[in-house]
């Protein structure tokens, strides 16, 4: 069962409160119908004020005009201040708090000041009229100031909510832009991998054609390399198409990566140089390799390199200079696993770290391309731990002979 919390597009609690306020004003006028000046005619004015109060939140200025007109009828009839005139104060509070412009509240305050003088002049009794005017003025002024304070706080809260909403939208936009940029970068790198494979296939095919009569065995080896490289390139092309299909348009250029050769495909053979750069930057890295490293497809090898690069970048950025980092590459029969754990006990970084993408977001995008998984989080003893698992192809291609 679903309970509706709104009615007529307004919160149910607010509507119930306004109905209760209007009912109290109307009952006040009805209860005093016999004793008050004007009798039932005055009661009719009070009930009309009560009905107008039902719309005090949505149309505060219009309600103020209606109640002011009814109060003027009361003054002209010389009925004097009556109990249901509390509706005037409620209306004044509402127009100051809910009015689109504060000048409506200021104008209502001026009208209320005139009403105070007229009410004081018609107040029966032995009290001097200016004493009554002072009393009515203090009450009316207090209501106006309270409403102004509530309005200020309300607008402040609304501005904070709007600012938070704007920041959230900006974060989402930045996240989408980062994802698009990282996918563009991945697609560019995969394109280079495929182009490299095509070049190898052409060279090996030409070699096989020339060696077919002279050395059939070597020609068969070259043809096998062509076949294996073609399968590998086809798989990389499938991943490339998948990345391009999901990628959104972005005008951002590729970020510069300190220490990366611009026109050379990176591989795991470049890891020692990468680790040396991070050691020079201040990290104390313990690098461990377990298992026998198989021949990885170039795209997967590049992904492992990028994951290591981003893991060390995060360690340098957040753990700081002098932090201890345990980096492990584990090769199993069906996957390669990258683990990086730091102790979080370094010093703040002075120079920027060599980054290859957009941190965890970029790593997750890259790992997802190869159907892998990424987990990251704080360690109980302090520091940060990251683990990326990348499944190996079921039928890996044999070693590719570079051109």
Would you summarize the structure shown here?
The radius of gyration is 39 Å and the shape is rod-shaped.
Verbal overview:
The two termini are about 70 Å apart. It is rod-shaped, with a radius of gyration of 39 Å. Strand 3 (about 285-290), helix 9 (about 300-320) and strand 4 form a beta-alpha-beta unit. The chain is about 60% helix and about 10% strand. The chain contains ten helices and seven strands. The relative contact order is 0.07. With about 400 residues, it is an alpha+beta fold.
Based on CA inertia axes, which overall geometry fits?
Answer: rod-shaped
State the secondary-structure class.
Answer: alpha+beta
Task: Return the average pLDDT rounded to an integer.
Answer: 79
Spatial gap, N to C terminus: 70 Å
**What is the succession of H and E elements?**
EEHHHHHHHHEHEEHEE
Order of neighbouring strands in the sheet with most strands:
3-4-5-7-6
Characterize the biggest β-sheet: 5 strands, mixed
Radius of gyration: 39 Å
- Tally of separate helices: 10
**Low-confidence segments:** 248-263, 351-357, 396-403
> What percentage of the residues does DSSP assign to strands (E)?
5-15%
**How many extended strands?**
7
Portion in helices: 55-70%
Oligomer: single chain
GO molecular function: kinase activity
Keywords: ATP-binding, Kinase, Membrane, Nucleotide-binding, Phosphoprotein, Transferase, Transmembrane, Transmembrane helix, Two-component regulatory system
Organism: Micromonospora parastrephiae
Protein name: histidine kinase
Give the helices and strands, then pairings.
Blueprint: E1 6-7, E2 10-11, H1 12-31, H2 39-52, H3 60-76, H4 86-98, H5 102-122, H6 129-211, H7 216-246, H8 271-281, E3 284-290, H9 298-319, E4 324-331, E5 335-342, H10 359-369, E6 373-378, E7 384-391
């Amino acid at each position: 069962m679903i309970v509706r919390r709104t009615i007529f597009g307004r919160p149910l609690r607010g509507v119930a409160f306004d109905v209760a306020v209007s009912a109290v004003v109307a009952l006040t006028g009805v209860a005093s119908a016999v004793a008050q000046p004007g009798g039932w005619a005055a009661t009719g004015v009070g009930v009309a004020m009560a009905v107008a109060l039902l719309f005090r939140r949505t149309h505060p200025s219009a309600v103020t005009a209606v109640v002011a007109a009814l109060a003027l009828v009361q003054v002209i009839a010389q009925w004097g201040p009556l109990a249901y005139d509390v509706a005037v104060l409620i209306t004044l509070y509402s127009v100051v708090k809910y009015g689109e412009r504060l000048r409506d509240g200021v104008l209502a305050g001026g009208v209320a000041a005139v009403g105070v003088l007229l009410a004081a002049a018609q107040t029966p009794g032995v009290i001097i009229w200016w004493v009554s005017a002072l009393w009515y003025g203090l009450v009316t002024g207090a209501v106006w100031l309270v409403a102004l304070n509530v309005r200020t706080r309300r607008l402040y809260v609304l501005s904070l909510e709007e600012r938070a909403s704007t920041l959230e939208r900006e974060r989402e936009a930045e996240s989408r832009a980062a994802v698009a940029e990282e996918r563009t970068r991945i697609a560019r790198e995969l394109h280079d991998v495929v182009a490299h494979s095509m070049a190898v296939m052409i060279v090996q095919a030409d070699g096989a054609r020339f060696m077919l009569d002279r050395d059939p065995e070597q020609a068969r080896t070259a043809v096998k390399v062509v076949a294996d490289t073609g399968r590998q390139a086809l798989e990389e092309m499938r991943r490339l198409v998948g990345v391009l299909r999901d990628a959104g348009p972005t005008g951002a250029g590729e970020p510069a990566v300190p220490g990366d050769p611009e026109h050379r495909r990176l591989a795991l053979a470049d890891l020692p140089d990468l680790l040396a750069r991070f050691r020079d930057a201040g990290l104390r890295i313990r690098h461990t390799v377990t298992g026998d490293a198989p021949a990885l497809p170039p795209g997967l090898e590049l992904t492992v390199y990028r994951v290591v690069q981003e893991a060390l970048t995060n360690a340098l950025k957040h753990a700081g200079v002098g932090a201890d980092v345990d980096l492990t590459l584990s090769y199993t029969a069906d996957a390669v696993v990258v683990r990086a754990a730091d102790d979080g006990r370094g010093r703040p970084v002075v120079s920027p770290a060599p980054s290859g993408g957009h941190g965890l977001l970029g790593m997750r995008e890259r790992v997802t391309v190869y159907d892998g998984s990424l987990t990251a989080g704080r360690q109980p003893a302090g520091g940060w731990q990251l683990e990326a698992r990348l499944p190996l192809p079921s039928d890996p291609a044999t070693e590719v002979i570079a051109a």
